[in-house]
Design a protein that fits this description.
single chain, alpha/beta, 11 helices, binds D-malate
């Protein structure tokens, strides 16, 4: 969690990018951030808040475009192929760690096709159900799933999506595979969960918190070690009978490979300023998450973190043989 007054931020900016060469007059026109999932979902929600705040700092509009599908790889491909001039960016999540192992035939280099700009946030997840689902606790839900697994379905946003990974870990933890229903994002999946077309979903608090508070869906658990301030009445999956079931979804900002370093540094500085804005911090908290600290919203930290995450998932996916293609 990062909370720091502006003066502190200026110091952090100096700390975070000491050797920054001047970016020649950047930006001079609007910047587009590609979200690789459908509008209205968790990644879209986070990106629109960051884009608005960066736009207030960088002196040009920062707009969001949704390119959903194929577990986030269609949107990523769009940015990998874009001109490396800082005007087309990608905001993506843990999918950037899993995609290099899950997908063996991609039209872009999932490891070296991007310049990391900085981490953004780490969002907790929730296990949620449609209101007519015949259980109110996680333990009751697990019993129902084990008994009626062929009749119960689980929504996700495609192979490699956070909802897919969490769903996979949940099914493995309870030893009951279910029918999965893929969407272009958990935004549209949420509509079907509310209507009862699908039964269950594992999704980020940035998409579920307000639905849970509004009683349009049921919350069975949060995937953090401790209950969340934003959802004080929702027990942890650990307390609900799944030891060690902890998942948060890291998010980062990227530019196409070979985007000049001064431009990457300028974007990183703007991202840091955005993440320290009071109104963004407050909105993130309402949605059950928080921005990362300024020293993690930097290209070098992000690059090291991302490489470590790719290395972590490779043996897990190889062992499971869970390839997407
Ligand atoms: C979304 O924005 O729809 C989600 O991030 C999808 C997911 O990864 O589960």
């Amino acid at each position: 969690m990062f909370r720091r007054p502006l003066l502190g931020l200026a110091a952090a900016a100096v700390l975070a990018a000491p050797a920054m060469a001047q970016a020649p007059a950047f930006p001079t026109r609007p910047i587009t951030i590609i979200v690789p999932f459908a509008a209205g979902g968790p990644t879209d929600t986070v990106t629109r808040l960051v884009a608005e705040a960066m736009g207030r700092d960088i002196g040009q509009p920062v707009v969001v475009e949704n390119v959903g599908g194929a577990g986030g790889t269609l949107g990523a491909a769009r940015v990998a192929a874009a001109r490396p001039d800082g005007y087309t960016l990608l905001l993506h999540h843990i999918g950037m760690g899993t995609t290099p192992s899950l997908y063996r035939r991609l039209p872009y280099d999932a490891v070296n096709g991007f310049e990391p700009i900085g981490l953004v946030t780490e969002v907790p997840m929730t296990i949620v159900a449609t209101n007519r689902f015949p259980a109110t606790t996680l333990a009751e839900a697990i019993a129902v799933i084990r008994r009626d697994r062929d009749k119960i379905n689980l929504a996700n946003a495609g192979i490699g999506a956070a909802s897919h990974l969490c769903g996979l870990l949940f099914q493995t933890a309870i030893g009951a595979p279910m029918t999965t229903v893929p969407y272009r994002g958990t935004g549209p999946a949420m509509t079907d969960l509310i209507s009862g077309t699908v039964d269950l979903m594992c999704d980020q608090t940035t998409n579920t918190t307000e639905q849970i508070r509004g009683n349009t869906i049921k919350a069975l658990a949060v995937t953090t070690a401790e209950p969340l301030a934003a959802l004080p009445n929702v027990p942890t999956a650990i307390a609900g009978g799944l030891p060690g079931f902890e998942i948060t979804v890291w998010h980062g900002l990227y530019a196409p490979r070979s985007t000049p370093r001064p431009i990457v540094d300028r974007l990183s500085l703007s991202l840091q300023k955005a993440l320290s804005e009071e109104r963004l911090v407050a909105r993130f908290a309402e949605l059950g998450t928080s921005p990362v600290a300024a020293n993690r919203a930097t290209p070098d930290y992000h690059r090291t973190f991302w490489a470590a995450d790719i290395a972590k998932w490779r043996p897990i996916i190889a062992a499971a043989g869970a390839y997407a293609d």
